Amino acid sequence: MRDNDVVLKVNNLKTYFRTSHGLVKAVDGIDFEVKEGRTIGLVGESGCGKSVTSLSIMGLLPKTLAQIEDGEINFNGVDITKLNEKSLRKIRGNEISMIFQEPMTSLNPVFTIGEQLSEPLKQHTNLSKKEMKKKIIDMLTLVGIPRPEGIYSEYPHQLSGGMRQRVMISLAMLCNPRLLIADEPTTALDVTIQAQILELIKDIRNKQNMAIILITHDLGVVAEMCDEVVIMYAGLIVEQADIKSIFDNPKHPYTQGLLKSRPGTSSNERKKELVSIPGSVPRPDELPPGCTFAARCPFVMGKCITEKPPLYKLENRLSRCWLYEEEAKGREMDLCLK
Fold first, then answer.
1. Count of structural domains, the chain
2. Which residues form the domain of 318?
3. Cα within 13 Å of Cα(167), Cβ side
4. CA atoms within 13 A on the CB side of 73
5. 237, 311 in Cβ contact below 8 A?
6. d(Cα 74, Cα 221) in Å, to the nearest integer?
7. Is 308 strand, coil or helix?
8. By three-state DSSP, how is residue 240 classified?
9. Residue 76, phi then psi, degrees to nearest 5
10. 97 with 181: CB under 8 angstroms?
């Protein structure tokens, strides 16, 4: 794979909401990229900006409340924040697809599965009705749905949660997108079905060399699926690294807290009390002047309360923490000497 096989590049993305409480900075200047055949995980607690990032990319923000204040979202070299709705529709569901978090609310209860899966094909292809039905049944078969001909004529409420999620994957994959955004694709599914869904997504990625953004708070899913991880907190990236570096040597106190919060696998570990990060994510309209994680951080110092830390470039990652100020300066000095 060449270094220039970048499917999506997000530069300084700022997505703000205007509310009765004032300006809410849901996403406040983030940068990342995803390449062909690679999966990047967006990780963090609820309210940290993961889903807003995905909706910004898809162009599905509620226009009366939210807008992209600054930054670029470059897809295939085109800044899609500058495109009008008609141009976005040609890309959305065709070159960029999304698996939404809750299939029961994403699927329309009054239309059959076949009718709903026909929509992207009507929008983006010139297939006949017969050809569309064959393609849909082939896709339902690919995602492991039994008796696909029967499912084609059924309604969402007639299917189990796992089957509905497979239908959502079919819907996202029908037009062979270059980029798939999966927002909590296994939430509320039992462990066995979760493993099957993840294996299915991974298999499709490998066959089609597709780029994936996986949004989750489940670190087990991240370990299974991702090549790189972006840790978000209160609308900012606080750490970014390859999967091995994140799990073997987490740098940011928030990342460390997330990893310590995982339940153990041995019988002795399961008997111990679960570790948790104290407090909660601050409201987006009540962010502190300094580091947004300071109130929950075990290593907090005076500087953290008053000054926002930059995103430092370390040896094999990015980390937004004053603890690494000297390490980052040392690395810059070494690079200058070279």
1. 1
2. 250-338
3. 31
4. 19
5. yes
6. 27
7. coil
8. strand
9. 55, 35
10. yes
Task: Answer yes or no: is 312 within a domain.
Answer: yes
Question: pLDDT digits over 34-49, tens only?
Answer: 999 999 999 998 889 9
Identify whether 258 is part of a domain.
Answer: yes
Query: Residue 239 and residue 233: Cα distance in Å, rounded?
Result: 9
Residue 259 host element (H or E)? helix 253-260
- φ/ψ region of 225 (left if φ > 0, alpha if ψ in -120 to 50, else beta) reads alpha
Q: Which residue type, as a one-letter code, is found at position 69?
A: E
125 alpha carbon, distance to own chain's centre: 27
Beta bridge partners of 54: none
- Three-state DSSP class for 160? coil
Sheet holding 39-43, edge to edge: 96-99, 179-183, 211-216, 39-43, 228-233, 236-242, 317-319, 312-313
Give the DSSP H or E segment for 230. Answer: strand 228-233
The CA-to-CA distance between both ends of the chain, in Å, stands at: 28
Both tokens assigned to 103 = 């299939």
CA distance 337 to 87: 48
Q: At what angle do helices 129-142 and 113-124 cross, to 10 degrees?
A: 120
Identify whether 318 is part of a domain.
Answer: yes
> The tokens of 74 are what?
């470059």
Exposed, middle or buried by CB within 10 Å (0-12, 13-18, 19+), for 102? middle
Higher pLDDT, 32 or 198: 32
Q: How confident is the model at residue 256 (pLDDT cuts 50, 70, 90)?
A: very high
Taking CA atoms, 226 is separated from 42, 197, 218, 222, 326, in Å, by 10, 15, 12, 5, 30
What's the predicted TM-score (pTM) here?
0.90
Is 165 among the domain residues?
no
Q: How far is CA 9 from the centre of its chain?
A: 14
| Residue 67: closest CA among 109, 37, 25 | 25
List pLDDT tens digits, range 66-123.
999 999 999 999 999 999 999 999 999 899 999 887 766 788 999 999 999 999 999 8
